Amino acid sequence: MVHSKTDWECKSTYKVSTNSHGINLVALSNEGGSTQVTVERGHVTSWRNKQGDELLFTSTKIPRPPSAARGGIPVCFPQFGPSASLEANGQARNEGWKIDNDPPPLIHKYCRGKSYVDLLRKPSKEELRRWPHSYEFRLRVLLAYDGNLNMISRIRNIDSKPFSFSFGYHTYLSVSDISEVRIEGLETLDYLDNLSDRKRFTEHGDAITFESEVDRAYLCTPSCIAVVDHGKKRTVVIKKEGLPDAVVWNPWERKSKTMADFGKVDYRKMVCVDGAVIERPIALKPGEEWTGCLELEHVPSSFCSDKYDSRLKHF
Ligand SMILES: O=P(O)(O)OC[C@H]1O[C@@H](O)[C@H](O)[C@@H](O)[C@@H]1O
């Protein structure tokens, strides 16, 4: 057990424990019910609401290490998206992280009254051969009494030269069926289409729906995006800071058949909506630090565009 504490104001008890599957964060309401998050190797693999529903997708066929798992929320760094020289979607998610049992204080609005764990990593010798820059990556994963999941990434340049990187919280959401999903908040924005050599287009639809493969990096996106699932009667609201772009991905049937770890109908059960830095990579001079935050909130399906717009204004 790393820690357990009771927050009387929020009427909740927070627990952090470790077992062979990874790290478990639990927020127990003193009035009953609990929410839970599991973290493995710097990768959020499970997020359960009070009803016990799993909100994140994991492919039904698990790949053998060192292949990256498809599912949950891997953190992608120093590369997110296709690259000629670096591993697509970054190497950080395949590497080892250690728990920091005595993390330095962090004053951030996301940090109040929550169960959390700090994970830390520096590049291995092997990684330095592939990307020759020294950094310290501190990832804090937090679970609030209301079930909100937060991830705060802090990347510090501890090298003697500047470096730049792209980044993404590769968020695999579990959905009832992809045909029931609508994404709000990206209307009228420009995007780079990964299916057309990253050409730039402008979104014209009301909201994004899915009828075929989609692989787009939306640019200069709002801080709040809603993923509405009519089938499951729920909405996941994605809030982000320091992450201007958002990747939307569903491989659809043909592409998913080429993915060894995807089951036959897995593509119907998932959508990725990733808070990201794509178009303008982050440049850090020696000693500088960058912070990128993600918050996922689960709300009832009655959550409609009107409510979403007013929330957006207040975020
Ligand atoms: O790295 P993973 O989890 O297999 O995800 C792959 C997909 O991730 C998406 O973010 C990219 O835009 C796609 O181009 C890519 O195919």
Automatic annotation (TrEMBL):
Annotated GO MF terms: carbohydrate binding; glucose-6-phosphate 1-epimerase activity
Keyword terms, alphabetized: Isomerase
EC number, UniProt record: 5.1.3.15
Any Pfam family: Aldose_epim
Catalytic function, reaction form: alpha-D-glucose 6-phosphate = beta-D-glucose 6-phosphate
Coiled coil: none
GO biological process: carbohydrate metabolic process
DNA-binding listed as a keyword: no
One GO CC term on file: cytoplasm
PANTHER family: APOSPORY-ASSOCIATED PROTEIN C-RELATED (PTHR11122), GLUCOSE-6-PHOSPHATE 1-EPIMERASE (PTHR11122:SF10)
Family indicated by similarity: Belongs to the glucose-6-phosphate 1-epimerase family.
Name the UniProt record assigns to this protein: glucose-6-phosphate 1-epimerase
High-level lineage: Eukaryota, Viridiplantae, Streptophyta, Embryophyta, Tracheophyta
